């Protein structure tokens, strides 16, 4: 199966299963790998600013401030502490135009299920902003019981994994569904099933262990050696930002998130000065941008896209043309997964956004977590009905 965009909807052509070699586990994992440089020409990562004569270079200050603003569109409060990107009539018209290129996964449901027919659908779900609403306090990003029920049911019919920027333990605490696979810290901390796979078993950062249910699992932590450095940086970031009102520094095990959604926007440049000023001293760390969050991450060639490949491999679903991976996410970091699926032509991404995004490698869109819930519910309903049809057809021949 091969998905190609015709700017109105994806089109299926020939199959090209994910290659084991593309995991690149042994050769690309080194923190010193040139491929892992933060000085990316893609523009995803900004160069780390230098202090010149006691002052940060202006152009670069503007660079990170622009990136912080661009990653954090204005929001409005809907209820309690739930917030969404604000919308105007102009904005809505722009969104409708944008949806021509990235159609609603709900409106395109029949097309999606026509791709999925007779295939194993593998679901990869981001957490914040995808399964839970974005909230003022990141510690309160709870998923609804209705969403939990639908994800739990989806996991019965489809191999399902949560891939989050949060620590694996924290996202597991939020989701509380044992039937899922979890990848925390943007895929740098994966607990997945034990399968026979040469490329996985030989990797030194992948070990067999026992999970809380007593099941044997694979634990893959490619950034293990960065743990002491991340802990040190976490403590230093708390210290250097302690006088900024509203800031929240979160230790996500293999990365540190600096949330500035509750910081007065006049202070955003100060947030950047403090964070980049500190990270400047760590050549093996870099900073990426999310929604009102700066994330300090190890410089390794690993991301949510690599995590998807790893999980497909672990699940025994790579190298097969009867598998349709679907990744649903709302953040810039999810683009790595969208890109992997688009380039491998074996599945597709669904971007959760109620505002048009300048660039995305997703094929489809959903407005918000309530539409994600509806989509997952429809997918389960569809799978149940096709299973029933198959049983009925089989029973006619008995
Ligand atoms: Mg998210």
UniProtKB/TrEMBL annotation:
It holds the Pfam family Trehalose_PPase. It catalyses: alpha,alpha-trehalose 6-phosphate + H2O = alpha,alpha-trehalose + phosphate. Keywords: Hydrolase. Its cofactor is a divalent metal cation. GO terms for molecular function: trehalose-phosphatase activity. Pathway: Glycan biosynthesis; trehalose biosynthesis. Its EC number is 3.1.3.12. One of its GO terms (biological process) is trehalose biosynthetic process. Removes the phosphate from trehalose 6-phosphate to produce free trehalose. NCBIfam families: HAD-SF-IIB (TIGR01484), T6PP (TIGR00685). Belongs to the trehalose phosphatase family. This is Trehalose 6-phosphate phosphatase. It comes from Zingiber officinale (Ginger). The lineage of its organism: Eukaryota, Viridiplantae, Streptophyta, Embryophyta, Tracheophyta.
């Amino acid at each position: 199966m091969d998905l190609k965009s015709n700017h109105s909807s994806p089109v299926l052509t020939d199959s090209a299963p994910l290659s084991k070699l593309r995991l690149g586990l042994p050769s690309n994992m080194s923190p010193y790998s040139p491929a892992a440089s933060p000085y990316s020409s893609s523009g995803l990562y900004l160069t780390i600013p230098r202090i010149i004569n006691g002052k940060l270079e202006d152009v670069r200050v503007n660079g990170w401030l622009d990136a912080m603003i661009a990653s954090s569109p204005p929001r409005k409060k809907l209820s309690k502490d739930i917030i969404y990107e604000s919308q105007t009539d102009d904005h809505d018209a722009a969104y409708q135009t944008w949806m021509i290129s990235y159609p609603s996964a709900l409106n395109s449901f029949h097309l999606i299920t026509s791709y999925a027919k007779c295939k194993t659908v593998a679901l990869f779900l981001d957490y914040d902003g995808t399964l839970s609403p974005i909230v003022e306090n990141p510690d309160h990003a709870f998923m609804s019981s209705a969403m939990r029920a639908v994800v739990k049911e989806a996991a019965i019919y489809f191999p399902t994994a949560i891939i989050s920027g949060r620590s694996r333990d924290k996202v597991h605490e939020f989701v509380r569904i044992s039937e899922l696979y979890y990848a925390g810290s943007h895929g740098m901390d994966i607990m997945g099933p034990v399968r026979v796979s040469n490329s996985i078993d030989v990797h030194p950062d992948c070990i067999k262990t026992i999970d809380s249910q007593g099941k044997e699992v694979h634990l893959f932590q490619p950034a293990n050696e960065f743990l002491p450095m991340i802990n040190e940086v976490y403590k230093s970031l708390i210290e250097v930002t302690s006088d900024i009102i509203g800031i929240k520094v979160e230790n996500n095990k293999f990365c540190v998130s600096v949330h500035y959604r509750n910081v007065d926007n006049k202070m955003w440049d100060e947030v950047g000065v403090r964070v980049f000023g500190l990270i400047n001293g760590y050549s093996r760390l870099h900073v990426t941008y999310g929604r009102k969050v700066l994330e300090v991450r190890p410089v390794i060639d690993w991301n949510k896209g690599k995590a998807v490949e790893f999980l497909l491999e672990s699940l025994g679903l790579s190298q097969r043309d009867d598998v349709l991976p679907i990744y649903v996410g709302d953040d810039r970091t999810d683009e790595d997964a969208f890109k992997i699926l688009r380039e491998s032509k074996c599945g597709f991404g669904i971007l959760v956004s109620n505002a048009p995004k300048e660039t995305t490698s997703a094929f489809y869109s959903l407005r918000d977590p309530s539409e994600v819930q509806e989509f997952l519910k429809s997918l389960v309903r569809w799978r149940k009905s096709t299973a029933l049809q198959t049983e009925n057809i089989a029973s006619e021949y008995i």
